[in-house]
């Protein structure tokens, strides 16, 4: 069994910052990639940022230059530093992990954490 536990969401004013964390635990052999997706009301879930085991990253165009994804391999944890937040960043943010458990490659989701950007 693998679990992803997210933390760090909340309410912030425009221009502010938040840092999200996601820790993976359980029967993990290795992690290929971890990432963050978000879903705003009435919209589809979209990729925000992703980082592979080789530290290759990719970002949605809308967050480039403002968000930074990083990971701590020893802790199976991924972080998303969000700066210069805008109201349009308001969404539920979901952690995702593409990993090997019991030598089978599977994909897991966290429960989501709300980020609200509002004055």
In a few lines, what is going on in this structure?
With 119 residues, this protein is an all-beta fold. It has strands spanning 2-7, 10-12, 18-26, 30-39, 46-52, 57-59, 67-72, 77-82, 91-101, 104-109, 113-117.
Provide a descriptive summary of the structure in words.
This protein is mostly beta strands and 119 residues long. 0% of the residues lie in helices and 61% in strands. It has strands spanning 2-7, 10-12, 18-26, 30-39, 46-52, 57-59, 67-72, 77-82, 91-101, 104-109, 113-117. The strands form two sheets. Strands 2, 4, 5, 6, 9, 10 and 11 form a seven-stranded mixed sheet that branches.
What attributes does this structure have?
single chain; 119 residues; mainly beta; seven-stranded mixed sheet; four-stranded antiparallel sheet; 11 strands; 0% helix; elongated
Task: Kindly state the percentage of residues in helix.
Answer: under 10%
Outline:
elongated
Overall number of strands: 11
Biggest pleated sheet: 7 strands, mixed
Secondary-structure element series: EEEEEEEEEEE
Radius of gyration: 14 Å
């Amino acid at each position: 069994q693998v679990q992803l536990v997210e933390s760090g969401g909340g309410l912030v004013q425009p221009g502010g910052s938040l840092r999200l964390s996601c820790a993976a635990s359980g029967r993990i052999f290795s992690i290929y990639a971890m990432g963050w997706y978000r879903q705003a009301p009435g919209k589809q879930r979209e990729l925000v940022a992703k980082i592979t085991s080789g530290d290759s990253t990719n970002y949605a165009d809308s967050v480039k230059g403002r968000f930074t994804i990083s990971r701590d391999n020893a802790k199976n944890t991924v972080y998303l530093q969000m700066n210069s937040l805008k109201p349009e960043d308001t969404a539920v943010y979901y952690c995702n992990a593409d990993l090997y458990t019991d030598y089978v490659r599977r994909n897991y989701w966290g429960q989501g954490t709300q980020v609200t950007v509002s004055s």
